[in-house]
Amino acid sequence: MAVRLPRPRRFDVWVALAGLFGGLLMWGIGLGTRPAGEPIVLFEGRWPILLPLFAAAGCELLRRAAPRTAVLGGTAALITDTLTQGSIATLLMYTDLMYAAVLYGTPAAARRLPWITGLTSIAASLVPYAVWRVPEALLIGVAVGVVSFAPASTGLIVRNHRDAAEAAQLRAEQTALLAEMDRTQAVTAERARMARELHDMVANHLSAIAIHSTAALSLDDERTSRDALTVIRENSVQGLSEMRRLIGILRDGSDDREPAATPTLDSLGTLVEGARANGLDVTLDATYDSVPAPVELAAYRIVQESLTNALKHAAPGRVTVLLRRLDGGLDIRVASPYGGRDTPRAPGSGAGLVGMRERAALLDGTFEAAPESGPDGRLWVVRASLPVTDITQGETQ
What's the pTM value of the predicted model, to 2 decimals? Predict the structure, then answer.
């Protein structure tokens, strides 16, 4: 089976042609590295010089495509060249092949070649000196080091710098990717937070407006219509106030008007009074103290959304709101009559339960909402437990 060599790179073709042309030029003018008659020259004459020259040029074609094959072939060409009068072009091409073998070869080859060429240079110095006992014999090792060890070491240095640059670029790309992921997650989290705030602030008032406007349209009674319009106006004003607060948050305080304060648990009484004005029979039993601001806001929104759902979906009857500050947490329970209503009094999207569950999860709390059976019949019960330990004031919901 024939071995198919890889296709050479364009730059390598130019390098091979330049080396071959330079070698032919020096061969044409009779310039060699050794004079005829030396003991090491086994092949006299000018023509034997061309064989290693062409072989080295052919190896240059593979300097990057197959660096191991190229350096092995170059080594054979260099040994052959030493048995002739020699060509400087062959020596120069071999140094490039050694450099390319370290730079473009495998990591194992890049580690081994400098050691191999270094040991070969030492041996080429010590062995001739031990045999001939003349200082000039050490120059053989110097020549071997210049031809092999120097380009191999240079290739290793360049390769290390290249690998370090690629690693730095990779780290920069990974850092940029992580930053983009963090930015995307931050934007997603902020959008979810604003969606919860918008739903909790507007849904309660719009649900009351929808219910009372339906009553005003369905009942031909002036007093009932007037009462419904009064409730509609109150909820409209409160909804606008909440929207202004949200706009103030979005503009980061750039609005000329001071946004309304963030609701707290102390506002639950006002919230329950508003629910009663909207037609709910609500009782509030709250006992708490020293609750962090993030927990206060989450608890207030959970109660607010529970009352909104009760207004839209609950059967006639009493709605109970219970808050208790226990060791390590704030427990919330909102129960409303369940069943007996075919359709809701106002349309809903189902996002309220999702928002309440998200608020509890952001504080590492628990949330559940499901029907239960009790002495007073079937109830829809919303339960949440919000931890109040290890909660910093800087957390946002």
Answer: 0.56
CATH of 266-272+279-397, one of 3.40.710.10, 3.40.190.10, 3.30.565.10, 3.10.450.70: 3.30.565.10
Sequence-separated (6 or more) residues with CB below 8 Å from residue 295: 330, 363, 386, 387, 388, 391
Measured distance CA(252)–CA(197) in Å, rounded: 15
d(CA 222, CA 284): 32
Tokens 């000196």 locate to 129
Phi-psi region of 336 (alpha: psi -120 to 50; beta: other; left: phi over 0): beta
CA distance 211 to 265: 26
> Scanning the structure block, which residue is given the tokens 């957390």?
395
Distance CA 369, CA 372 (A): 9
The per-residue pLDDT of the chain, averaged, comes to 83
Helices (H) and strands (E) in the chain, counts: 11, 5
170 C-beta neighbours (distance < 10 Å), count: 10
Q: Which helix (H) or strand (E) holds 172?
A: helix 150-218
Distance between CA atoms of residues 282 and 288, nearest Å: 19
Q: Which residue has the higher pLDDT, 246 or 176?
A: 176
Report the C-alpha gap between 364 and 397 in whole angstroms: 12
pLDDT higher than 50, residue 258? no
User: Using the 8-state DSSP alphabet, how is residue 327 labeled?
Assistant: T
Q: How many CB atoms lie within 10 A of CB 52?
A: 28
Hey, is 250 helix, strand or coil? helix
Residue 74 · residue 19 · CB < 8 Å: no
Structure tokens at 120: 């070969």
Burial of 211 (0-12, 13-18, 19+ CB in 10 A): buried
309-324: pLDDT as tens digits: 888 888 888 999 999 9
Cα angle, residue 279 at apex, residues 273 and 281 outer, rounded to 5°: 70
Q: What is the Cα–Cα distance from 95 to 138, expressed in whole angstroms?
A: 20
Q: In Å, how far are 207, 235, 280, 281 from 230, measured between CA atoms?
A: 15, 9, 16, 19
Interval 236-249 mean pLDDT: 70
**Domain range summary for the chain, segments of one domain joined by +:** 10-174, 266-272+279-397
